[in-house]
Amino acid sequence: MNQSKDEQLLKDLEILAKEKGLDIRDELEEITKKIQSSKDIVSKVWKNVELARHSDRPRTLDFIEMIVDDFVELHGDRYFGDDLAMVGGIGFIDGIPVTVIGNQKGRNLKETIDRNGGMANPEGYRKALRLAKQAEKFNRPIITFIDTQGAYPGLGAEERGIGEAIALNLREFSQLKTPVICIIIGEGGSGGALGIGVGDKIYMLDNAIYSVISPEGCASILLRDTSRAKDAAAMLKITSKEVLALKVV
């Protein structure tokens, strides 16, 4: 709903009713309630978006530190390099060996630059697949922590095959012969989330979000108005309760 246009329409109706001597107070009151209800929904959803993106939210390495014993991080995709936006390794949970993979954002400017804002390049997804295949070989369960706006959309990522890397992960993760649990801990954005988001069970934290596109991207592409990101967020149904109702998680 475009709130500014609706509010202007309401004002126009009020002026027209006065000019024509019409009594449409009940109708105007009903429209006003609907506009206010829409505002409340948009405000609530956007607050959820802000919480999902908050710099103080626990990151993948925080969860690993809390629940994984003797964690050893593994690096590199064996093709191009190591992507710090995607972390992974092996450890133990209650004595059970596991492989853990996840997006890693930074907490300050330097970390954010080093981690590329949690937006992985192709080598990040290829590293994730390498670790997943290793886990399958040694019968280790896999846990993935998802927290990204999406895969990195840069020229270098395109040249190195970001689309192919994500597509390959979708296919291979769906065929793994070891249990895979995916947990959306912050932002679950687009193909960047799906690249490590195919599993036997998909969970989502209460204030996380999960969407095919960011609210800003949706506002720009579909609504043709970047200022309507909050409206787009409400339209996308990205909150945990909405995603649960859609049976996506």
Please explain how this structure is put together.
There is one protein chain. The protein has helices spanning 3-20, 25-53, 60-67, 109-114, 122-137, 155-159, 162-174, 190-194, 215-221, 229-236, 240-245; strands at 69-73, 86-93, 96-103, 142-148, 180-189, 201-204, 209-211. The two termini are 26 Å apart. With 249 residues, it is α/β, with parallel strands linked by helices. Strands 1, 2, 3, 4, 5, 6 and 7 form a seven-stranded mixed sheet that branches. Helix 5 runs parallel beside helix 7 (162-174) and helix 9 crosses helix 10. It contains eleven helices and seven strands. The model has no long low-confidence stretch (mean pLDDT 89).
CATH superfamily of the largest domain: 2-enoyl-CoA Hydratase, Chain A, domain 1
Number of helices: 11
Low-confidence stretches: none
What is the count of distinct domains?
2
Q: Helix and strand succession?
A: HHHEEEHHEHHEHEEHHH
Structural class: alpha/beta
CATH domain class of the largest domain = Alpha Beta
Strand residues, percent: 15-25%
For the largest beta-sheet, the strand count, sense and barrel status come to: 7 strands, mixed
Shape: elongated
From the N-terminal CA to the C-terminal CA, the straight-line distance is: 26 Å
Mean pLDDT: 89
Radius of gyration of CA atoms, rounded to a whole number: 22 Å
